[in-house]
Amino acid sequence: MAGGMGSRMKLSEEKLLLKYKKPVILHVAEALINSDCFSKIIFITSPYSPKTKKLLQKNNYEIFDTPGIGYVEDLNLVLKTLSDSVFITSADLPLLDSEIIKKIVNHYDKNNMWTTVLVTKIFLESLGISSDYVTTFENKICNYTGISMTNPQKILNLEKIKENFIIINDKRIGFNVNTKQDYELLGTT
Q1: CB atoms < 10 A from the CB of 179, how many?
Q2: Of 48, 79, 94, 130, which cross-links 152 as Cys (Cβ 3.0–4.6 Å)?
């Protein structure tokens, strides 16, 4: 997912082009490729990420351009075109690497409609990060990582999904860049 506005960053530059040695989006792209877990990698862009789209095209990555209506709506457009199992990740995870991707993929059960990866709120706060996207699982307050796995053939409507959750407390998936403070903190890792 590479089409967000990055509105929480309050920057004129597109969030996924912020540099952590190289643009954040390229860290994610390389992690996905280096994992050797996927037969196809598609970057979902929107009118809100034209420079990100241009960088991805320059690097010969496959693009699915959406209208930028919203995360769920744009994702639903893509999932309707796919019939294979899908690994979904936000592209604002600069510490993502191939090893954590392999670990997550090993948790995938195609019989589940949707599997969402969480980190505990306590773990996230230990990284110095906070998130507004909270749920309770196994009597723990958890935060979404932006990573999910799904079998689109089991989905009729994204609004009626039964989620299966797993908790993986790992900074490679817990550390996403949503605010200026997150980006500044990234520079200290």
Answers
A1: 17
A2: 79
End-to-end CA separation in angstroms for the chain: 24
> If you average pLDDT over residues 144-167, what whole number do you get?
81
Tell me how far apart the alpha carbons of residues 22 and 5 are, in angstroms, rounded to a whole number. Answer: 20
- Contact by Cβ (8 Å): 11, 32: no
Q: How far apart are CA 147 and CA 96, in angstroms?
A: 11
Query: Are the beta carbons of 46 and 57 closer than 8 angstroms?
Result: no
Strands 140-150 and 22-23: unpaired
CATH of domain 7-186: 3.90.550.10
Q: Is the pLDDT of residue 156 over 80?
A: no
Average pLDDT score over residue span 123-144: 89
Segments making up each domain of the chain, as ranges: 7-186
**CA nearest neighbour of 87 among 70, 73, 103, 104:** 104
78 contact partners, CB below 8 Å, separation of at least 6: 42, 44, 64, 66
* Distance from C-alpha of 44 to C-alpha of 42, rounded to nearest angstrom: 6
Decide: pTM greater than 0.70.
Answer: yes
